[in-house]
Amino acid sequence: MKIKLKYKLEALFGLFSTMIFSIMLILALLFSPNYSFFENYISDLAYFSGKLFFAIGFSIFGVFLVPFFITLERELVYINENIRRLATTIAILTCTCFALGSIIPEESYLEIFNIFHSLIAGFAFFFSGVYILLFSYLMYRSYEIEEYSGPKFQLFLVSFGFITAIGEFVLIFIFVPILEWIVVISMVVWIIITNIHLLIHKFIRFPLAELKRLKHSESIEIFKAIQKKIDELNINDKILSDAIDNNLFLLKKRNDENRS
What we know:
The protein has helices spanning about 1-30, 50-75, 80-100, 110-140, 155-175, 175-200, 210, 215-230, 240-260. The chain is mainly α and about 260 residues long.
């Protein structure tokens, strides 16, 4: 139960960060009566009266999204390890960009700040498009990879991820305020839906770091022992049983391949 609670808490960081981010942006807008969605960019809130809420929202958003992406990475194993690691690395870089974007400018160095913030914003949107695209690709591929035994991600989420990623790339070339808001809202919605999926579906996680140090034959014996113990305790959990059966099948297959 403690392990389950730990991973549930990690997944909740995505909901927490997006909730705080949304609330802070709304407060920043309420305290900035002259702000216009068609004339001002989101970063312009740093120059209005609600700039403190803007700074708090972006800093929390950048910091607390990291555990969410690490949790998402753990659920997309056995599909494409290189893409999985790349997507997570880029997602964490994006979080850093969002956190840096919370810096409030001072009049003494406005020109330097504008250059710095433009670069940070450009990297943030580009990296966001890349990691959403890569994670969506992994979600799509989960339907075709037999090694993947976790719950399938909804095709709606996959399609929405691809559309959001395209929007991020378009924004780099057509950088207008209203489109920026649409893209940011789409990204937040993608994170929320993905987070809810992680929370409502049951993923099975085994101590892979320890198993990797063992031979395939030794790992097979461990899973057989787990399977036997589940049968003895009369635990009726189809997802757990299917996950163990799938791991046994893959280990036996790889063991046979190594022998041949």
